[in-house]
Design brief:
four-stranded mixed beta sheet, alpha+beta, 7 helices, 31% helix, 199 residues
Length: 199
């Protein structure tokens, strides 16, 4: 009969880690299909830690990562987030314990940090590009456009060609005349009341 290595296992009941394991001991919880490992020596003779080393949901599978990436909606926070060296390092570097694999929780947390509270209509790179008209120099374009606008507080005194503006508004030659000295040439005026005022 061949040699066999048996490990502790739980076939029903509660999902999760065993309460204790010996150092180097392995256990399988068949409720959630996770493999657990006892690591280090504790004061009571058991291991100092029980850690998950395999099974469903322990590490991010290719399928999990592909699904998460396909669903990610990247907001405008991405640029500012990644321009900070420390933030970029935090985002791209996993902890020492998870350096070889990314857990589903880790991937989800990092994706959520990038998305932030962006509205659904602006939480993908394509949506952002469409909103900016795919203009790589959007900031310069907007700044240049605003530079050509009239200043509200100037009350039209900053018009470069007031005469042309009056023509465009259909005001004709009447607009620049003084109310006390109106000159009318040609045409006729009907239904006009002239009031000499009070004294």
């Amino acid at each position: 009969m061949p040699n066999r290595v048996r490990v502790k296992r739980r076939v029903s009941g509660t999902a999760g880690a065993p309460a204790t394991l010996l150092n180097g001991e392995i256990a399988v919880n068949e409720v959630d299909n996770v493999v657990w490992y006892g690591k280090g020596l504790g004061q009571d003779g058991n291991s100092s830690a029980v850690i998950a080393i395999g099974g469903d949901g322990v590490f991010a599978t290719k399928s999990h990562v592909a699904t998460a990436v396909a669903a990610v909606d990247v907001s405008g926070q991405l640029a500012s987030y990644l321009t900070t060296a420390s933030a970029a390092t935090t985002y791209l570097t996993q902890s020492a314990a998870a350096s070889a694999y990314a857990t589903p929780s880790y991937v989800t947390t990092q994706i959520s940090a990038v998305i932030g509270a962006a509205p659904q209509a602006l939480d993908t790179l394509k949506e952002l590009a469409d909103a900016l008209g795919s203009d790589a120099s959007f900031s310069t374009t907007v700044t240049s456009s605003l530079a050509g606008k009239l200043v509200k507080a100037s009350n039209l005194s900053d018009l470069t060609d007031a005469s042309a503006a009056r023509v465009n508004l259909g005001l004709g030659s009447m607009a620049p005349q003084s109310s006390s000295n109106v000159s009318i040439t040609g045409g006729s005026i009907d239904n006009v009341t002239i009031d000499g005022g009070a004294y």
